[in-house]
Design brief:
Length: 228
């Protein structure tokens, strides 16, 4: 059974609503995110008009509800029935492989976003935000690491894409699929007045620190927070 940190250890009241507080414990616990809000913000056309990279990201923490909404918009579950027997997500992927994992670096630890349960699963305790890159990324409240898991490409007999096992084809897919998610994040940020910055990251140290499998590839990072 998944243990959840008591609510008083996870959240603190703020003028913006509820904000995330990573508990100081010997072991990180899963964080069940609040139900994502699917109303509000600017229109799609307005968000497209205002979409931009903003590297001046404040260190002010994000409310837990905003984190929930952000991750759902990026790559959350938006329908129970998608293609190939899987749930549908807010961003497409080749043969609905859903091969991109979102690792979330918060001030107190790194978590894996588990979309079906809409929760953050603990990966590593400690502040790894600087692995996302230079400048304000190291102090921003949230960094998303895009990590591809090649084992999620189904190469069984029911797979219609017979080239999906080709490493070069896989590369074209996971880079494209990362772009879909990153653009969702950018549009969410534009819609709700947040700063977002997609960039390179430390592809060496994160492998061991995030306890990645041999089939996983570190791709990019995206920093999100309030603009300064």
């Amino acid at each position: 059974m998944i243990k959840v940190v008591p609510s008083m250890a996870l959240i603190a009241a703020s003028a913006q609503g509820y904000s995330l507080v990573i508990p100081v414990t010997a072991e990180l616990q899963p964080i069940v995110l609040p139900k994502p809000e699917k109303e509000g913000g600017k229109s799609v056309l307005a968000a497209l008009s205002e979409r931009k990279t903003n590297r001046n990201v404040s260190s002010k923490e994000l409310p837990l509800q905003v984190i929930s909404n952000l991750l759902w918009a990026g790559f959350g579950v938006n329908r129970d029935s998608g293609s190939f027997g899987k749930k549908g997500r807010t961003a497409p992927s080749a043969s609905n492989s859903q091969e991109i994992d979102l690792y979330i670096a918060l001030p107190g630890g790194v978590y894996l976003y588990e979309a079906v349960g809409h929760q953050l699963l603990p990966v590593a305790e400690g502040d790894f935000r600087a692995r996302a890159g230079r400048g304000k990324a190291a102090t921003a409240p949230l960094n998303i690491f895009y990590i591809a898991d090649l084992s999620k490409y189904d190469q069984g007999p029911t797979q219609p894409d017979r080239a999906i096992g080709d490493p070069e084809i896989q590369k074209s897919y996971f880079f494209t699929d990362t772009g879909f998610i990153a653009q969702n994040i950018y549009l969410f940020a534009a819609s709700f007045g947040l700063a977002a910055w997609f960039h390179n990251c430390d592809k060496q140290n994160t492998v061991g620190e995030f306890k990645l499998k041999p089939t996983q590839r570190v791709l990019f990072a995206q920093t999100v927070g309030y603009p300064e």
